[in-house]
Amino acid sequence: MLVQETDVWQAVLGEIELSVSRGSYITWFKNTRLLKMKDGLLVVGVPNVFVKQQLELRHTAFLMEILEKNGIKPKQLEFKIHSGITVKKPLEENMVILPAPAQEQADNTGGKPRTNRTSSLSHSYRQGINERYTFDNFVVGSGNELAYAACQAIAAKPGTKYNPLFLYGGVGIGKTHLMQAAGNAILARKPNARIVYASTEQFVQEFVDALRYKKNTDFANHYRNVDVLIMDDVQFLAGKERVQEEFFHTFNALHQANKQIIISSDKPPKDIPTLEDRLRSRFTWGMSIDMQNPDFETRCAIVQIKASAHGITLPVDLVEYLATYVQTNVRELEGALNQLLAFCEMRGLDPTLVVATGLLGSHKTRPKHVSAKHIIERTAKHFQVSMEDIIGPKRDKDIVVPRQIAMYLLREELKISFPKIARELGRKDHTTAIHSVEKITKEIAFDADVRQAIADIKERLYA
Ligand code: ADP
Ligand code: MG
Questions:
Q1: Fewest beta carbons less than 10 Å away: which of 85, 139, 333, 371?
Q2: DSSP conformation class of 270
């Protein structure tokens, strides 16, 4: 391969990066390379079969266009799976895993290798880490790319950058997966790193047991002597004062020693009820990242990656069906796929679109029975305002916001015109409707409350 050709491909990638969404770029284009360019044939190396399928199906014309802009006009464009392409892992040598505490080092001078020593502890220091969750089998898309990048940065240099890293977002969108992947990446590099993953429920249970059996010191030492502590679902600390206090001290000990803390929750710290202020503020010391539902392309890639873990390649129409069938939570998406695969295995069938629609029904999206009235009623109910108020003249903030959200939903869900939206909500001027839809669209991007309200209303609407 000529150096010049690699340069060409870099230029092409640079241009693609500017023209598509970040998620799309990372998922489909970033890990490609030019394998061959000869006699009108251009071969692009791709990392796996689903990237290949998606590029062939959806992006060929686009790629041709960009190539042409760069002075290349291949007659034929081919994609080839190329094993040399692995996703780059930005792990660095100089990790900040500090040496074991004095006591344990002294124990180790007996000549026993440390790994044996740690695995014989009742609590091993790779506790709770599941090898199934890696960066490699995590699909990066617009809703999770920031969280992904932060976890990778942490895996490269734990304890130095985002400390704590606080990931939040609804159920089943990959928080646990990402935190575990960070743990696995660190362990791959440093098998002796002391990493503990604990669900908050487990932390609570162990704390209660420690109190009961008077092992408080053991408990405290265990959690305060780790290199990386991953605490999942800290919303469950709500209302548990003594546990919060214990966690507060654990947090301080680790933070002061520059040990990495990774935390997840289903909501941002400010929304966790009855959380002590001192913990709430500590949770925001490092970096908080809001994870969002994956977009369609990301969902397609997730279906493919999950199927390929079972050694199965699904036809593209089936992948798209599944990605449309479940639009929000990845766990449900995986559930639908598993249900389908189990069914096919039992019946000796190949997984196809026909089998899937037979099993799961036709698309769940936009059932016909949802009307404008339904949407307005649901929205009013959600915000506990009356129908009269929402379609009436009042301009108080607690009525204006629900009204704007109702307008947004009418537009998004039913695609009806702005003048009609205005009429449905008792407004004369359709520019109000335009303004409202624009405002809510913007707010969704940065206001988790608005997003949650809309998700809740939609869920009820289609339940
Ligand atoms: P959360 O902790 O946010 O509730 P999980 O991390 O448990 O969600 O994710 C639920 C399931 O979905 C897991 O099996 C996980 O592997 C999968 N999953 C979520 N997001 C992704 C992704 N981007 N790529 C691959 N798998 C994903
Ligand atoms: Mg989880």
A1: 371
A2: G
Centroid of ligand 1 to alpha carbon of 334 (angstroms): 9
Q: Check: CB of residue 89 under 8 Å from CB of residue 135.
A: yes
pLDDT tens across 113-130, in order? Answer: 333 333 323 344 567 899
Cβ atoms of residues 130 and 161 within 8 Å: no
Contact criterion met (CB below 8 Å) for 51 and 31 = yes
Residue 19 CA: distances (Å) to CA of 13, 14, 74, 278? 10, 9, 21, 44
Exposure string of 94-129, with b = 16+ CB inside 10 Å and e = fewer, is ebebeebeeebeeeeeeeeeeeebbeeeeeebbbeb
Which of 104-108, 149-153, 229-233 is predicted with the least confidence, judged by mean pLDDT? 104-108
Which pair of tokens denotes residue 87?
A: 């996703």
pLDDT tens digits, residue range 372-405?
999 999 999 999 999 999 999 999 999 999 999 9
Q: Which ligand is nearest to the CA of 169?
A: 1
CA 137 to ligand 1: nearest atom: 25
- 139 CA from centroid of ligand 1 (Å): 9
Longest CA pairwise span in the chain (Å): 85
Q: Cα-atom radius of gyration of the chain, to the nearest Å? A: 26
> Looking at 59-63, 261-265, 327-331, which range is the least confident one?
327-331
Give the pLDDT confidence of 218-236 residue by residue, as tens digits. 999 999 999 999 999 999 9
Under 8 Å CB-to-CB from 361, ≥6 apart: which residues?
none
Rounded distance between C-alpha atoms, residue 244 and residue 237, angstroms:
6
What letter would DSSP give residue 99?
A: P
Task: Indicate whether 111 pLDDT > 50.
Answer: no
Residues 24, 22: Cα–Cα separation, whole Å: 5
Phi, psi for residue 173 in degrees, rounded to 5:
-110, 10
Omega within 30 of 0 (cis) for the link into 273: no
3-class secondary-structure state, position 221: helix
Q: Which has the minimum average pLDDT: 191-195, 304-308, 368-372? A: 368-372
> 3-class DSSP state for residue 229?
strand
Index of the ligand 1 atom closest to the CA of residue 330? 12
Global pTM reads 0.61
Query: How do strand 165-168 and strand 260-265 relate by DSSP bridges?
Result: parallel
- pLDDT tens per residue, range 168-222: 999 899 999 999 999 999 999 999 999 999 999 999 999 999 998 888 899 999 9
Q: Report the phi/psi class of residue 260: left, alpha or beta, with left for phi > 0 and alpha for psi in -120 to 50.
A: beta
Best CA proximity match to 52, nearest among 29, 75, 20: 29
Nearest alpha carbon, ligand 1 atom 14:
331
The pLDDT of residue 31: 85
